[in-house]
Task: structure prediction
Amino acid sequence: MIIDLQRFVSSERSRWVELERTLDKLEAEPNFRMTLVELQRFHLLYERTAADLAKIITFSSEPETRRYLENLVARGYGELHETRERQRRIFPLKWFFQILPQTFRRHIRAFWMSLAITLVGCAFGGFAIAFDPGSKSALMPFSHLQQDPSKRVAEEERATEDRLSGQKTSFSAFLMTHNIKVSIFTLALGMTWGIGTIILLFYNGIMVGAIAVDYVRAGQLKFLLGWLLPHGVVEIPAILIAGQAGLVMALALIGWGKRIPLKVRLRRVSGDLVTLMFGVGVLLVWAGFVEAFLSQYHEPIIPYTAKIVFGLVELILLVVFLSKSGSSSNRSLAEEGPPRSPAREPHP
Amino acid sequence: MKTAALQIRTPEGIVFSQLLAGPVTRFLAWFVDVLCIGCVLKILGSVLLLLQILSPDLARALYTVGYFLVSIGYAIACEWAWRGQTLGKKLFRLRVVDAEGLRLQFNQIVTRNLLRFVDSLPAFYLVGGITSLLNPACQRLGDLAANTIVIRNPRLSQPDLEQLLPGKFNSLRQYPHLAARLRQRVFPAEAALAAQAVLRRDELEPLSRVELFASLAAHFRAKVEFPPEAIDGITDEQYLRNVIDILYRTRTDARMERVAVS
Result:
């Protein structure tokens, strides 16, 4: 096609500028919704600009114009052909009480897998410490866990001064950030087809199992429960959920029996992974507070029974939250009928 | 086979390309981002020094949380606010986009940034670097999981026409319809190659230069056939200069130049 470039650019420029302005507005204001007339105009401008690009694409003398039009068409294409729901305002309460537990339940199979791997690790760690107490240093690489449990309990209960005095808040912040980093790592290792996630969950299980058997063998079950339950009933499930997210990613990557492309499989779980990880973050912030401000205090300061009851109440609330929260909105959606395909909804 | 650009075909049949960013440019952009994060943390540390007077425990806690949030949240916040760009990416003209050309979603930004934990293993993004070298779309693991790519928008610069075409008569311009056809048939990369060959003529051995210009001239002659009176008596190099003049200098420029000369 032979065209007069000068005339072509000067006659079409106004439409390109109008399209650019519309795209800027769409990108700057996520809540902006077009009227039908505006939408039709936007579509027309996009089609015209795409046609202009087709005309100019081989013109060596106009690389900047071509690049500019390519940029406009690429942005317009993204706006017009996007079928995923646009993220509008964030509702933290709705997200926490509905979306998070619903997402958790949607991938419950991966959670059971995560729990099973951890339990196998627990059994391994427990047996290892029971049959070979000398393996303690290899299984529990923390100095305060190396000493004899009875001796430690005696020391903790004898202590007259607060050893965390003046550092509780920073200790709490350290616990939160460290545990969240471990969780992110557990998720991210899902990209190793889940192998890394499984190893981390198994190792975590080994440590928990080894500590538990070590304290039970020393007759310190009550101390163990009082020490671990208040924060552990939230912290351990949070790590399990991170493992669940990692396994969800791994399952999408492997795609057993699914005849859909890898990109589509990963795209489908992407939002759920982020939801689960933000949920893990919230749980670990809570666990960090409890571990620094409550778990480290023992009898006679705080009775073990009170700590155990506190832990059990937390556990019940967490189970109810994850298993029941948001179910009513699920039911009402089911009563309304199947959701409309997002691909059929007009965009933007 | 590694491609330098990702081509996307729209349902309307229009093809647009996204130039892919290589691992080295991305590494440099990341290095700039690390410096930015360092600066933000330095400022945070200075501010918290004042708080340390009141409560050292709280100041330490805030610094720990601040360090965590800035190091993880910097890229997420920047890429979300600036549509796929951080300061480092802005500097190197890079941008994160959806691999299908669709709108970049918040979920994608978070996923690709959380997976940095694996990409950065064991040090200096070795896993991510190797993955992007092996991947046809230069994606690291985070990009694969989030279905994103990093593109580059190079600054396009026109060749120095004054140096190439020192005001000589261009016989090819006498045939505007053929000149227009030449513009239409020559690809941008071919035009750039011809311009570079002429710009670097003095760097070439005389014999190599003659051979190169002969083959380039033959290539462009095959694109559009000008009448013998337009090309007789001019060297291959001059023919090439005339072709570049046609390709790069618009008609208005040429007219203005003629007016200025007269």
Q: What stands out?
A: Chain B touches chain A through 67 residues (CB under 8 Å). The beta strands of chain B are 5-9, 15-19, 94-98, 148-152.
